[in-house]
Amino acid sequence: MARINVGEKMPEFVFNTGYRNDVKLYDELADKTVIWVLRYMGCTVCRYDIHVVNERYEEFKAKGAKVFFLMQSDQAHIQEDFDRTDEHPEFEIISDPEMAIYKALDIKPAASMEELAGGPEGLEKLKAKGAKAAAAGFSHGDYEGDEQQLPAMFILDKDGTVVYARYAENIVDLPDVDGVLELL
């Protein structure tokens, strides 16, 4: 499938979350729905993004928004992570270990670890984010899926029309939480 662009309808897909099965995307849409595509639960900076959104989720709700993270992790890894950290967010993690949704949305991996890091400037941003993640108590866990997977982000309106689409060029090439809140 081709990349999804602003103004297009997000294709309907059925997915599992860490705790639910056979969820239909269009049954879950809010006024604005953010699909934040990362790598896997063991990725320190990915897990940190989830943590920060969890801490600030009331701000998303105040804007009528709902968040889903899409990850390569299986349901067991999602459940184990939240049980271990005792962090149980209101939003859900879509479990896509077969990477079917990544493929359907044409979210490709980087060609190399250097490309994933984003060169010297991206590497500095990644190190800074990694330091924040470590300070918050996160460390690298199990490796799952494609280690070089690039992130992406989509914001949908209540009808499933894409109002924001970003296919990242490296691991730190997405808006941060403040940036996403501004987009809403």
Summary keywords:
184 residues, Glutaredoxin, 7 strands, single chain, seven-stranded mixed beta sheet, alpha/beta
Question: What's the gist of this structure?
Answer:
The protein is built from 8 helices and 7 strands.
Q: What's the CATH architecture?
A: 3-Layer(aba) Sandwich
- The proportion of strand residues reads 15-25%
Estimated structural class: alpha/beta
Q: Which whole number gives the mean pLDDT? A: 94
Radius of gyration using CA atoms only: 15 Å
**How are strands sequenced across the largest beta sheet?**
2-1-5-4-3-6-7
- The CATH homology group name: Glutaredoxin
In total, the number of strands is 7
| String of helices and strands | EEHEHHEHEHHHEEH
Alpha plus pi helix count: 8
The general outline is: globular
Q: Pick out the low-confidence regions.
A: none
